[in-house]
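Quick entry, no commentary yet.
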Amino acid sequence: MKTIQRLGSPVFIIAVLLLVLNDWYLKENYPNALTGKLSDFAGLFAFPFLLSVLFPRRAMAMYSGTFLLFIVWKSPLVQPVIDVLRHIRLPVQRTVDYTDYVALAILPFSYYEFKRPVNYILKPVLVNFIAVFSALAFIATSMPPGETVNYTDINKMYTFKFSKRELVSRLNLLQLEYVNDMEKWGSAKVDFDSKANIFYYKDPKDTVAMLIDYEKVRDTDTVFFRTMYAGANVTGNDTSSNLKLVRLRGYVLRAGKGDYKTKAIKFFEKIVVRRIKNYK
């Protein structure tokens, strides 16, 4: 029997269908502990199974690699990569939850199903359909549905116990970190215009970041952070400072029901406010 015929395994097909159903319907409409873990179990069963069918001589490597990849994916180690992908509007979703590691227990059962003697006789067109559908399912479920938001007049204030000069310095440092990540993981080199204080790709019009000049920025100026798709006012004195979020634009992932505007603001707080607070 050709290895490709193993794609006719009912257990494999059910796992792929469960993965799609859970990520695109159940998790959004019935968020609970079961739907939160179901995709991990289904994905860890089906993903290495498909890879092993495509590369049968490296089946053990496919399962070992999946084991290690899942551990890293569910850890903070890949967060810089995910941040960059989201900044370039690729809606990749990942939740750090170490209890998800329990789903790794499904791997031996998947390997057993792959190695189990079977006698499927599927027509080539059906085998190709299952293979393509499964591959698309893994891609689609890693980039769940969402929407592009463009909110103005948010006017949410964040206060810090350090000077305005320090706040500007930390905001510039944050932008430099994201520019560095973009250049490291992106496909194009980022250039810098020292006169305009901007980072850009091929053309200065394609600005990805603009450093703030403390001597020139006024309290009424709206500073635009291209790397965060946000606009804010920076105010303060020698002992305290404020960052007022004025507008926000970006891609918000749908993870259950809720207010997308609130999700967008929380994402800004995570990638901007929390980080500038933690700088030493």
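second:
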Amino acid sequence: MNDLIKNRVSESSLITIDLSEFLPNADPLLFDLSSYLYKGLILREKEYRQSLSETNWSPYNNKTVLVFCSNDAIIPVWAYMLAAVHLGAETSDIHFLTPDQWKEKEMIKNIQKTNPEKYYDSRIVIKGCGETKIPDSAYFEITKLLLPVAKSILYGEPCSTVPVYKKK
């Protein structure tokens, strides 16, 4: 009985790309305006200005900072502008983004830094399942990047894929 079970997936020439590898390495600091809202709903200008002037800004020094409001409240534009003024004195890397928006933006930047030539004429599987939620835009960007060079692009796991593209 010489019936060995062969792992055809490991013997194939498929290259698997796990998009979680393109996630940013560090988390930014968060500046959430919800903590400045009166009763979680209203931003009062006088109290907001006073709170900003009394804030210790040194923890934000030379850090990436995201400015947003996690509450479903109407925030006047000037409130974000004031946050930018105070944070801008400590760091030049401030963004008007939620954490999810920032993660998506950074992932796309990391994907765009990839040299597509290393995948020339390859059969590629873009990993579709994982523990980390990957933004749909990341799948779009990696596909766009690989189209000119890939022999084929598949989505899923090597043992169960959905064909996306095949060079003619």
